[in-house]
Write a structure and sequence with these properties.
The complex is a heterodimer of chains A (55) and B (256). Chain A is an all-alpha fold and 55 residues long. Chain A has one helix and no strands. Chain B is mainly alpha-helical. Chain B is built from eight helices and no strands. The chains are: A mainly alpha (55), B mainly alpha (256).
């Protein structure tokens, strides 16, 4: 592999992992908020955020 | 909303930093194009240090104040610490092969202590799965977090204390920072990438903290639910108990 190949592998690995982690974290947060809303007996907002009490 | 803006700013900064690193900065005289990997590699290493420091400080906060919000900060930083340590190792390997001729060398103190740091972060996260009691879990994790933080100065100064393959620290001393040996364009790009990665770290920390707090509330709600169910069962059992305290026969027992 050439130097450029290692550069591409390095950048792709680091930035790709960051992107995958960010996307996974967003999904985990959304699911957690939905579960939390369900346990409270509230209807979650479309973005997964628990609706405020009294809504 | 502010967090979302931070996320967009961090993303834009990383895109700009990457484009500058790949297409604007000239190749290094000695290392050629391989030095371009230094920008995300050093930035990842810095964030591994920062994550370890925050994990330890939040652990101390928990041990002192017994507030689970400190534990939520600690677990968030530890997870990011594991991620950025792994990314620093990956970047280092992709740089090491063309420049040193090898991906990895266990005899090198910097590489060995960095691998240990990754193991400590992963161990921290695994340890937390051993207990359902949030207080016990936070206390055990805080101790491991402090051990991980103790490894960080060893990682950083290992290149000065012992002889190895790895070169000296990029930001070793204040004089080195103010009077860098590298050309200005290299230094500015590195500072820009460090800033971009730090913004991304801040965004991910906020989101991970929100997740940790949500998980804590779910645990609390589940415990309350179990308690309420236990009370209901106890009430139901009480209704089936006669005045002498013995269980009254149920429908099946009555018919048999």
């Amino acid at each position: 592999m050439t130097d450029v190949g290692f550069v591409i592998a390095g950048f792709t690995g680091i930035l790709g992992s960051l992107a995958i982690y960010g996307a996974t974290l967003a999904l985990r947060l959304r699911r957690s908020r939905r579960d939390e809303a369900a346990l409270r007996g509230e209807t979650p907002a479309p973005d997964g955020r628990a609706a405020p009490r009294g809504e | 909303m502010k967090t979302r803006i931070l996320g967009f700013v961090a993303l834009a900064a990383i895109v700009v930093g990457t484009l500058v690193s790949l297409f604007v900065v000239p190749p290094d005289v000695n290392q050629g194009d391989a030095q371009r990997i230094m920008y995300p590699h050093v930035s990842s290493a810095w964030l591994a240090y920062l994550s370890g420091g925050v994990t330890a400080l939040a652990g101390i906060g928990w041990l002192w104040k017994r507030d689970l919000r400190f534990d939520a900060v600690a677990v968030s930083a530890a997870e990011l610490g594991a991620l950025f340590t792994a990314l620093a190792i990956w970047g280092g390997m992709m740089w090491g092969k063309p420049v040193w001729g090898t991906y990895w060398q266990w005899e090198d103190p910097r590489m060995a202590t960095t691998a240990l740091l990754l193991a400590l972060f992963v161990g921290y996260l695994l340890l937390r799965r051993l207990s359902d009691d949030p207080h016990r879990r936070a206390t055990r994790a805080a101790v491991v977090g402090l051990i991980a933080a103790a490894d960080i100065p060893i990682v950083h100064f290992s290149v000065d204390w012992w002889r190895g393959l790895h070169q000296g620290a990029t930001f070793g001393s204040p004089s080195k920072l103010l009077h860098p040996a590298a050309p200005l364009v290299f230094v500015l790009t590195l500072v820009g990438m460090l800033t971009a990665f730090t913004l991304a770290w801040a965004y991910l920390m906020i989101r991970r903290y929100q997740l940790a707090m949500s998980e804590l509330r779910i645990e609390e709600l589940a415990r309350e639910g179990q308690l309420a169910a236990a009370r209901l069962r106890a009430q139901a059992d009480g209704g089936r108990t006669d005045r002498t305290g013995r269980d009254a026969p149920g429908p099946r027992e009555a018919t048999s």
